[in-house]
Automatic annotation (TrEMBL):
GO terms for biological process: cell wall organization. The chain crosses the membrane at residues 49-68. The lineage of its organism: Bacteria, Pseudomonadati, Pseudomonadota, Alphaproteobacteria, Rhodobacterales. This is Peptidoglycan synthetase. Its main location: membrane. One of its GO terms (cellular component) is plasma membrane. One of its GO terms (molecular function) is carboxypeptidase activity. It comes from Phaeobacter inhibens. Residues 262-548 form the Penicillin-binding protein transpeptidase domain. InterPro entries: Beta-lactam/transpept, Beta-lactam/transpept-like, PBP_dimer, PBP_dimer_sf, PCN-bd_Tpept. Residues 280-299 are annotated as: Disordered.
Length: 595
């Protein structure tokens, strides 16, 4: 900085020439210099205060933000990390269509022992056997007194059992944290959920993995931390599922059936609202798969809805009639001669109880369940067109429903599809499919002719696929199915206010090693309701039913599966939000004439 002189010579000489005091000039310059220095000092001080203020502001902001974060977050105990592969413990919940819990996680403990640290091995073994009766005393004593340094005793224990073991007080008995899968509704929807077990295990953690059902199908999703713990939402309705299971179990006992299955499906979205397979199990205590035997259906783990592949009998007749109408070969009022004899090669085609219906309309062929009438329609359709139609309905491949066991339900079709197969398949023999296949086929008729894939996941709207038949053909087929209930073989299926339409089917049960049983059948009723504007399809299948009615033993679906389905519709329809209503009549045939 260049300073101004306190006594500038030019001003001093001028002041002396005028007779002024030169010291006044010096004092004035000195005052100005002091004023400038004071101004500079104040500016420096103010700058430092500003910087210091900004620092404190930033510090308080950071501290306040951290305190707010701590105040709004859950407290977590710090865990020391250890080398090795991490075990993923967390698993997302499974909920129904309304968000109700079907499967969740439960924090529990495992029990293990370190014999070198045990004080009284024999006494501890005796106390453990009292707490866990399934343990063997001799083996525990041998393990505790041997050379082993680590022994698993129980992979999961209840809080009460943990307290009882804790009261033993032996320092060699230790607990490890566990997260187990819990199914709070017990056996409800057991075959859908499947079950879970332990994968990788450690002392401080265990990996829960799906072993069957949707737990296995969506195992990667349920274990993926990137999903943020969002639950897997199914299409099932817990209330409807529980009601369906109760009705089906009662019906199975009343009809003395070996097993049973039912499927309730939305005809527009493909959502499976309820699917039941009996006998069932509790996924909290999943039984072991059978290790011997030829018939897998004897195991409660067998999912009859998607794994059970059966000849479903006369329920297939409506497909033949609908295709014939769609092709323009007939309409519902076309007359067909169903009288015998009818032979395909050396094989006669007969009717139930050797009846002879004579000439029937196509609608009455379905109502009376005529084999010959359906067979003659099938011969007009032809083998190739019949195959194309059934293939479009998904009858040749496993259903795409997202249950792990569904992949094993592959339909069985004849190696050579000739005239005989064309005729027998038209009335449900010679082609074996699962009840889930049948539900998808009837859903196509119910929704106006479009395929809809069955799904166990919640959908946001209609999921209609490719067209199988015209809306007109589907409409005539629905009218025929309604007539079956009002005046045909399914009269026990009528539910006042809900206008049920459907078709019965009774097929001889095949033996595991080939051939058919003489007195064992698979009885099926495939229904839709309300018939004039279907919302849902219901399929009920009973394995080996037999009931005494009017002094005779009855096995047919009209006496067994139909009443069970009718009871189920009456129970679940209000739960689905369907109100009873009067069935709309058709237009009266009035001819206007002039006077």
């Amino acid at each position: 900085m260049i300073r101004t002189p306190l006594r500038p010579l030019a001003r001093i000489l001028t002041a002396r020439a005028r007779g002024e005091n030169p010291d006044a000039i010096e004092r004035e310059n000195l005052r100005q210099r002091h004023a400038e220095m004071q101004t500079q000092s104040r500016q420096r001080a103010e700058g430092r205060l500003l910087v210091l203020g900004m620092f404190f502001l930033c510090a308080f902001t950071a501290i306040g933000a951290r305190m707010a974060t701590l105040a709004t977050s859950e407290p977590v105990e710090p865990i020391a990390s250890a080398p090795g592969s991490a075990i993923a413990m967390q698993r997302a919940d499974i909920v129904d269509r309304k968000g109700r819990i079907l499967a969740t996680n439960f924090e529990t403990h495992s029990l293990y022992a370190q014999p070198p640290q045990m004080v009284d091995p024999e006494g501890a073994a005796q106390r453990l056997v009292e707490i866990f009766p399934d343990l063997e005393l001799e083996r525990l004593v041998s393990d505790f007194t041997g050379k082993r340094k680590f022994i698993w005793i129980k992979k999961k224990i209840s809080p009460e059992q943990k307290q009882a073991v804790h009261d033993i007080g032996d320092p060699g008995l230790l607990f490890g944290p566990r997260e187990m899968r819990l199914y709070p509704n017990g056996s409800v929807a057991a075959h859908v959920l499947g079950g879970a077990g332990f994968g990788k295990e450690g002392v401080s953690a265990a990996e829960v993995i799906g072993v069957a059902g949707v737990e296995k199908q969506f195992d990667d999703y349920l274990r993926d931390p990137a999903n943020g713990g969002r639950p897997l939402q199914l299409s099932l309705d817990l209330t409807v599922q529980a009601a369906s299971e109760r009705v089906l179990l009662g019906g199975m006992k009343l009809m003395n059936a070996k097993g049973a299955t039912s499927i309730l499906m939305d005809v527009h979205t493909g959502e499976v609202i309820s699917v039941v397979s009996l006998p069932d199990f509790d996924p909290n205590d999943r039984p072991r798969p059978p290790t011997s035997g030829f018939d897998p259906s004897t195991s409660p783990l067998f999912n009859r809805a998607v794994q059970g592949v059966y000849e479903l009998g006369s329920t297939f007749k409506i497909f033949t009639a609908a295709q014939a109408v769609d092709l323009g070969i007939v309409n519902s009022e076309t007359i067909i001669d169903t009288s015998g004899p009818m032979r395909i090669g050396r094989f006669p085609i007969g009717e139930f109880h050797n009846k002879n219906y004579g000439k029937l309309s196509v609608a009455d062929i379905i109502v009376n369940s005529s084999n010959r009438g359906t067979g003659r329609l099938a011969l007009q359709i032809g083998a190739q067109r019949q195959q194309d139609f059934l293939r479009a309905m998904g009858m040749f491949e496993p259903t795409p429903i997202e249950i792990a066991e569904a992949a094993g339900g592959k339909p069985l079709k004849p190696r050579k599809w000739g005239e005989l197969s064309t005729v027998t398949i038209s009335y449900g023999h010679g082609l074996s499919t699962s009840p889930m296949h049948l539900a998808a086929g009837y859903a196509a008729i119910a929704n106006g002719g479009q395929y809809v894939a069955p799904t166990i996941l919640r959908q946001k709207g209609p999921q209609l696929g490719h067209r199988i038949m015209s809306p007109e053909a589907a409409g005539q087929a629905r009218a025929m199915l309604r007539k079956v209930v009002t005046s045909g073989t399914a009269s026990f299926g009528e539910v006042p206010g809900y206008q049920v339409g459907g078709k019965t089917g009774t097929a001889d049960k095949p033996k595991p090693r080939g051939g058919y049983y003489e007195s064992k059948v698979i009885a099926t009723f495939a229904a839709m309701f309300p018939a004039h504007d279907p919302k849902y399809v219901l399929v009920v299948t009973l394995d080996e039913p037999s009931v005494i009615a009017h002094g005779e033993e009855r096995r047919t679906a009209g006496w067994t599966a139909v009443p069970v389905a009718g009871e189920m519709i009456g129970r679940v329809a209000p739960l689905l939000g369907l109100r009873p209503q009067v069935e709309p009549d058709g237009l009266a045939a009035i001819t206007l004439t002039s006077n």
